[in-house]
Amino acid sequence: MHRFTQKLLTDMKVVPQELDDVNSLFSWHVNILQLRRKHIIFVNDLSRLCIIMDGIRSSQLGKLQQKFVTEFKGYLKLQGVKNSHIDQYLLESGEIIIGKTTDRSVLGTMKEMTLYCEGVEFDHLMDLSVWLNKLIYKPIEYEKPIQVFMKTLKERYSE
After folding, report:
1. Are 123 and 37 in contact (CB under 8 A)?
2. The pTM is what?
3. How far is CA 56 from the centre of its chain?
4. Which is the most buried residue in 27, 29, 121, 153, by most CB within 10 A?
5. Angstrom distance (rounded) from CA 11 to CA 87
6. What is the CB neighbour count within 10 angstroms for residue 59?
7. Considering the chain, what percentage of its residues have pLDDT values greater than 90?
């Protein structure tokens, strides 16, 4: 489930659906991140894990969804997450449904990440996501998003 900001809903020309409550592990807030050019930032509601990507133009919702899955899998593999845990997560998360943002705390973390991005340069966008996910954030008890996400996957999917 992806919860788009109004700015991104307008940019992608998407009408949001009414969303039921869902496990925060499977919910992501999504917004436009303006660096030197347009990027999209995804922030997981539970762990605050973020994925930043570019190459998406207005109205390319299908491409956005496909690229998210590809970038998400690539990022988690880079971090040493088991393929079986990644596959289980994607299977359990189900079809991507677009709705409106609902959690001011997640939006606050997203704003904080946006501020951290100002003036910071990396050769690859993946490196920016890696860096942001190793910072500590108050809403997750001053832990690092990657550690929270990996711990949650391990607890949920380990036999």
Report:
1. no
2. 0.94
3. 15
4. 29
5. 30
6. 12
7. 68
